[in-house]
């Protein structure tokens, strides 16, 4: 089963400022913008260049509780959030990781606004890993 790097997500209080910095300093371009009903008020976008892509998640308050840290939707605060791995068959990948004892934090979720099906796990150190399959 092939896996490919897809994106790194960065959470910020000012997405326009952060996108402008990456455009100015590194030559990144805006690739896509969207919103997700499950995340009201949150602006999402992809920026990138040369096949490398960042997901900018913006305009978020930093008000997490301890319980929120295990919820990938609630686990949103300034800084590094997760990395995404694009896979060819997300159902097979998720079955495989579950068979290996990995806890699934976000089950298979269709996000047509971003043209993906996604699922999320947490590694042993608490880092979030998202698997995505293109629709």
Summarize the structure.
The protein has 135 residues and is α+β, with helices and mostly antiparallel strands. The chain is built from 2 helices and 8 strands, in the order E-H-E-E-E-E-H-E-E-E.
How is this structure best described in words?
The chain has 135 residues and is of the alpha+beta class. The chain has one domain: 2,3-Dihydroxybiphenyl 1,2-Dioxygenase, domain 1. Helices cover 16% and strands 45% of the residues. It contains 2 helices and 8 strands. The longest helix is centred in the N-terminal third of the chain and has 12 residues.
How does the SSE layout of this entry go?
Elements: E1 3-12, H1 15-26, E2 29-34, E3 43-49, E4 52-58, E5 79-87, H2 90-99, E6 104-111, E7 116-122, E8 128-134
Parallel strand pairs: 1-4, 5-8
Antiparallel strand pairs: 1-5, 2-3, 3-4, 6-7, 7-8
- The CATH architecture: Roll
The biggest beta sheet is recorded as: 8 strands, mixed
Approximately what portion of the residues adopt beta-strand conformation? Answer: over 45%
Helix content: 10-25%
Structural class: alpha+beta
